[in-house]
Amino acid sequence: QLKAEMKRGHVFEGWQEKEIDFAPTYKYNKNSDDYYGSNQIIKTKLTRAPAWCDRIISFGVGLKQISYDRVETTLSDHRPVRGIFTAHIKVLRSKEKRTSLI
User: The Inositol polyphosphate-related phosphatase domain covers which part of the protein (predicted)?
Assistant: First the structure.
């Protein structure tokens, strides 16, 4: 849903997200690799489907995301995500400019 709305220009105009190529990050049984409700015989309306709720989006000229994955920790019902970026930055030498940015 987020990707579709971003493509339509309805939300986060100009922002980017690297393609997702990892398993859904939500909703897990705590301290487990099992999705919540996956062991139930009868599915109910209250059971959430696995989803990508944890995301990284970025904005900026010269910013490039080179990796995007999830962390395999079972402390929560989420799997956190992480990204590595490269950034081209402009160094300001003027003292006047530096103090105005602080």
Answer: 1-83
